[in-house]
Amino acid sequence: MSEFLLLAFLFLVGGVVAVPIATRLGLGSVLGYLLAGIALSPLLALLHVDVIAIQHFAEFGVVMMLFLVGLELQPQTLWAMRARLLGLGGLQVVLTTALLAAGMLALGQDWRIGVAVGLILSLSSTAIVLQTLSEKGLMRSDGGQASFSVLLFQDIAVIPMLALIPLLALPDLAGHGAGGHGGDAAHGSSLSLVEGLAGWQVALVTVTAIGLVIAGGMFLTRPAFRFIAAARLREIFVATALLFVIGIALLMTLVGLSPALGTFLAGVVLANSEYRHELESDIDPFRGLLLGLFFMTVGASIDFGLLAAETLPILGLALAVMAIKGGVLLLLARIFRLRGGDAWLLGLGLAQAGEFGFVLIAFAIGAAVLPPDIAPRLTLVVTLSMLLTPALFIAYDRLIRPRFDREEPREADAPEPGHVIIAGHGRFGGIVNRMLLAAGHETTVLDHSAAQLDLLRAFGVRAFYGDATRADLLEAAGIAEARLLVVAIDDPAQATALVRRIRHEHPRVHIVARARDRRHVYELYAAGAHDIIRETFDSSVRAGRSAYEALGMHPFEAERLARAFTTDDRRALAELAPLFDPDLPEQQNPAYRARARELMEAQTEALRHRGGSFRERSERGWTPPTPRDQDIAAESEG
Amino acid sequence: MARIIQYFAHPGVSASRINAALWRTTEGVDGITRVDLYAAYPRYDIDIDAEQQRLRDHDVIVLQFPLFWYSCPALVKEWIDLVWEHGFAYGQGGTALRGKTLLLAISAGGPQDAYRPDGYQHHDLRSFLTPFEQTARLSGMDFLPPYVLYGALRADPAAHATGFARLLAALRDDRLDRDAAMGLPILTHDTLPIAEA
Ligand SMILES: Cc1cc2nc3c(=O)[nH]c(=O)nc-3n(C[C@H](O)[C@H](O)[C@H](O)COP(=O)(O)O)c2cc1C
């Protein structure tokens, strides 16, 4: 227990100290984690910690990340990407592998080793690149999208690679390596559903498993999540989300597929679901922590002894690999018509080798493909290339981006045209939503009533499950880019707190808020809401107007009287608002009390005179001249 | 039998002496359609389709209102602006009102002698009404001389009101001598060229 606590403590300290410093220096969080890992490595060695085991555990962060990436990606979007996914991604893997294999041949290695090394190094680091791209807000740029397509293809390509690598086994290595720990990496585990099955059976099981994930995502998740949501227990929902992701990863592992691919698919299936934002905000912290841990283990697992002994050749190899990968990517960027800055983003961003490389190296050793003297050097090359990546991103930021930014205004990665978020879709928010949709605006509705959401979804409304007062959920729903927030939730105190927070964190967003009563109006006013609407005032005034008409008043007069009443009431409200002190009950606020009493008296006075001044004012207008006026006019004309 | 529709427009009915009296009186005229425009659209949300259908369904359109600043009250203007659309009242395909008749019934606060070139209003009443006259002409309608009460601030509404009821009934029964009427600058309760039944 204390050992676990010590380890957790060390890694957390490393991250907490290094990452803020690195981001402050503009190096990005990934480099921060890597440096923290390097700093920790002597301590970990002293404690005999199995860093590689921790790394395998932390790789689950990549699985979660792909789940989140999937959630952001509607199936339609994925389909639209198919040309780039297969073309750009496929060519990148094939060309890079071929060139690297040729290089290995030139260095005098066996061709089989060459191909294996080529495959291993052709993969880039999904973890580093996606993390960095989203940190820099480049995910939506053309270069970011292209990078994503290539990474996605690579993640999928891992599966056939795992099948291919054993075929490259070296006869003279087979004796001592084969059948070893080829399976204890992330792919294929000691438990397997497909072991000993014929090819077609394996295919059948595989297809069934994928079908299960898709069908489950489409049909099972909704009732399950609704059931869980009804319990209104946050941690149970989080647990369900984790259970879901881990379950899929497990299933994929059992049938020998990439768990990252499986959860990615599940994410895509759920991208249209009302629970998307909730899942996103629940899983995201785990992803962040695990990825951080993963990067630290990469830093900590550097074999400094070997590196010190062969600094120049290994560094040279790492640079050569990055140059080849970058070159291939730049060439492909040309062919696929990526423009200036975007082409460089792709070329520089994906030039490193990645975490799947570690997985494949372990697998290749087990499959007797890599001789023991090559493997550790290869690991160092991969690690160094990952370490150098933040430097390339910095180069992109400082040297490339400014140049192209000036030439061509960037269009693609600007946030979507501001949309509207409606917090709470009850009787109040529902009407606001209908009106906005009718006027052609895009809305995102957040509500915590699952039954309500089903109904909305049936009508094609973009509605999501979740407690709208939670900061992370609003972030996931895109409050940062929203133009307008409608706070229509029931609970006055929560509404006020929400308004105050959004005004503080996103002062740009316009807020329309629903108020329970007068006091709540003042609280919302103090909290900074732009438009404050009393939930029953307008309908009550309309009821009063109907009463006027029913009593025989002309409809136009009834309308004018109702308007006059509204104006009067709002004027009184506005007059009292500045006197109101949210920390003081009204009866202890002398200024407020005095003015309220005055206004009240004026109103009773008006009532006593059957309308009085109020009625007089509302009837002003269309007052004809007196006959006497005309006499004067006639006389003055002579 | 002609189909008559009377539009009554007064924003302050409870303070009206003349026009309210006219409105009450035409209640007794059978077979005509009566619309209180300010009651139908107290929030100015005019139903254009319904109004256009109403106009199609009638032959004589009567607009009755007090003269406000030498023109009509605001809602009447809004109603014309929205209902007498291009393609309905005028322009290409705008033939819906062709051959129909427009009659204005107006009460003016100013006395008759004020509405003369040498009076303090400097023009006769018809000059102020030329926008309506031209609106009717553009739509292919006959524009009858307006039915007028001058000095509406002092005048007794009774005779003017019964005259108005007689006028509407005569239009309904085609008993108005149109040629004679067209020769008059304005119609008043004591000059109606009506062939008594
Ligand atoms: C806003 C306003 C404007 C008026 N403008 C005129 C005018 O331009 N010429 C005129 O003769 N009388 C004018 N008057 C007097 C009205 O025409 C007169 O009050 C009305 O015809 C009386 O009818 P009623 O009893 O139905 O209200 C005006 C009256 C009001 C209230």
Task: Characterize this entry briefly.
The complex is a heterodimer of chains A (638) and B (197). Chain A is mostly helical and 638 residues long.
Which architecture of chain B does the CATH hierarchy give at level 2? 3-Layer(aba) Sandwich
Overall SS class of chain A: mainly alpha
What summary fits the major beta sheet of chain B?
A: 6 strands, parallel
What is the strand tally of chain B?
Answer: 6
Word description of this protein:
The complex is a heterodimer of chains A (638) and B (197). Chain A has 638 residues and is mostly helical. Chain A folds into 2 domains: 9-191 and 280-405, Na+/H+ antiporter like fold (Up-down Bundle), CATH 1.20.1530; 421-618, Rossmann fold. Chain A has 29 helices and 6 strands. Chain A is elongated and about 120 Å long. Mean pLDDT of chain A is 82; it is low at 176-189 and 407-417. Chain B has a single domain, classed as Rossmann fold (3-Layer(aba) Sandwich), CATH 3.40.50.360. Chain B contains 8 helices and 6 strands, in the order βαβααβαβααββαα. In chain B, strand 3 (60-66), helix 4 and strand 4 (101-107) form a beta-alpha-beta unit. In chain B, helix 1 (18-26) runs parallel beside helix 7 (157-172). The mean pLDDT of chain B is 96. The interface between A and B is medium-sized, with 19 and 21 residues. Flavin mononucleotide (FMN) sits between chains B (10, 16-20, 66-70, 107-110, 152-153) and A (622-624).
What are the SSEs and their pairings?
The complex is a heterodimer of chains A (638) and B (197).
Chain A: H1 2-24, H2 29-46, H3 51-58, H4 60-71, H5 75-80, H6 82-106, H7 111-122, H8 126-135, H9 142-164, H10 171-177, H11 199-230, H12 234-254, H13 259-270, H14 276-300, H15 304-309, H16 311-335, H17 340-349, H18 355-366, H19 374-407, E1 420-423, H20 427-438, E2 443-447, H21 450-458, E3 463-465, H22 471-476, E4 484-487, H23 492-505, E5 510-515, H24 518-527, E6 531-534, H25 537-550, H26 555-576, H27 590-608, H28 612-619, H29 627-637
Parallel strand pairs in A: 1-2, 1-4, 2-3, 4-5, 5-6
Helix pairs in contact in A: 1-2, 2-14, 3-14, 4-13, 4-14, 6-7, 6-9, 6-16, 7-18, 8-9, 9-17, 11-12, 11-13, 12-13, 16-17, 16-19, 17-19, 18-19, 23-24, 25-26, 26-28, 27-28
Chain B: E1 4-8, H1 18-26, E2 32-36, H2 37-40, H3 48-56, E3 60-66, H4 74-83, E4 101-107, H5 125-128, H6 130-138, E5 142-143, E6 147-149, H7 157-172, H8 178-182
Parallel strand pairs in B: 1-2, 1-3, 3-4, 4-5, 4-6
Helix pairs in contact in B: 1-7
The structure holds flavin mononucleotide.
